[in-house]
Specification:
The chain is α+β, with helices and mostly antiparallel strands and 281 residues long. It has 4 helices and 10 strands; from the N terminus they run H-H-E-E-E-E-E-E-E-E-H-H-E-E. It holds the Pfam family IQ_SEC7_PH.
Length: 281
C-alpha cells in the first residue's frame, strides 16, 4: 500500500501553484542593487508596470531611447528600475533572464502624481515622492499614461487607508492593554492593602458603641469604684481604732464603721467613755 502511494506521488508530484508571492519573488530575483530591500512579503502583490522615458529637462527634447525606465507598482511600494545592457523585454515576462538596476525606491504613502503635457512631451506625468524628490516621465501614448496614473492613485488611496486602519487598531490594542494592566494593578494594590491591614492588626469593624452599652459600662465602672472606696475606708477606720486602743490601754470600744456604696463619706460611732477618779490621781 505504501509502495503504491509512493509511486503515485513520484509520478504526480505535488507542487504549489503560482500566486502573488511567486510573481513578486520572480521580480525580486531580477533586480540588482546594494540598497535593495526584501521585496517578497505575504501582503505584497504586483499591481502594474509601465515602460516610460525619464524626462531630464521638460523644455529640451531628448532621444526616444534615452533614459528608458520601467516603473514597477506594488500595492504598497513603487520601484524605478533601469535595464542593464539595454532593453530586451519587460520585467514581467515569464521567460526573462534580464537584470535590472534599482534606481529609486519609495512607499506609496505620501506619494503624489500629476499629469502634464507640453509641445515636446504630450503624455508626461510628474511623481513627487514623500522625501520631496520629484521625477518626470513620459509614456508611449495617452492610454498607457491614463491606465498607469489611475493604478497609482488607487494604490495610494488603498495604502493610505490600510495605514489608517493599522494605526487605529494599534491604538485600540494599546488602550486595551493599558486598561488590562490598570485593572491588574488596582487588584494587586487592594490585595496588598488587605494583607498589610491584617499584619498590623487593623480591624475594620465599626468603632462606635451603642448608647445602652455605654450606660451599662458606666454603671458597672461607678459601682466598682464605690465598692472599692467603701471597703478601703472601712479597713482604714478599723485599723485606726485598734491602734488607739492598744496605745492608750483603753477597754474595747464598740466601734462601728459604716459605709454606703455609691456615697463618698464614712461615719464612725462609739460609746462615750467616762474617766474614773483614779485616773486623775
Amino acid at each position: 500500500m505504501l509502495a503504491g502511494i509512493y509511486e503515485r506521488v513520484k509520478e504526480f508530484e505535488f507542487r504549489t501553484d503560482q500566486d502573488h508571492v511567486s510573481q513578486v519573488l520572480k521580480i525580486d530575483q531580477c533586480i540588482v542593487s546594494k540598497e535593495k530591500q526584501k521585496l517578497t512579503e505575504p501582503h505584497r502583490r504586483l499591481i502594474s508596470h509601465c515602460i516610460v522615458h525619464q524626462i531630464i529637462d521638460q523644455n529640451k527634447k531628448q532621444s526616444s531611447s534615452a533614459h528608458m525606465r520601467e516603473i514597477i507598482l506594488f500595492n504598497d511600494i513603487m520601484l524605478v528600475c533601469k535595464l542593464i545592457g539595454g532593453r530586451k523585454r519587460s520585467i514581467s515576462s515569464s521567460n526573462r533572464m534580464d537584470q535590472y538596476q534599482l534606481r529609486y525606491f519609495s512607499l506609496l504613502i505620501g506619494l503624489h502624481v500629476q499629469e502634464f503635457q507640453n509641445s515636446i512631451y504630450q503624455h508626461a506625468f510628474l511623481l513627487t515622492f514623500p522625501d520631496g524628490q520629484s521625477m518626470m516621465f513620459n509614456a508611449k501614448n495617452n492610454d498607457d499614461r491614463y491606465c498607469f496614473v489611475t493604478d497609482i492613485r488607487e494604490s495610494i488611496a488603498e495604502s493610505t487607508e490600510m495605514e489608517h486602519w493599522r494605526i487605529h487598531l494599534e491604538m485600540e490594542r494599546q488602550q486595551h492593554q493599558n486598561n488590562h494592566l490598570s485593572g491588574i494593578g488596582a487588584r494587586l494594590a487592594e490585595h496588598d492593602f488587605q494583607i498589610g491591614g491584617q499584619q498590623r492588626g487593623v480591624i475594620t469593624t465599626p468603632t462606635s458603641t451603642p448608647t445602652s452599652q455605654k450606660q451599662n459600662l458606666h454603671s458597672i465602672s461607678v459601682g466598682s469604684c464605690n465598692n472599692s472606696s467603701a471597703g478601703a475606708m472601712t479597713m482604714v477606720t478599723t485599723t485606726t481604732v485598734d491602734s488607739i486602743q492598744r496605745d492608750s490601754g483603753l477597754p474595747d470600744m464598740d466601734c462601728h464603721a459604716s459605709s454606703s456604696v455609691g456615697h463618698s463619706h464614712s461615719t464612725i460611732s462609739s460609746t462615750s467613755i467616762s474617766p474614773s477618779p483614779a485616773d486623775f490621781t
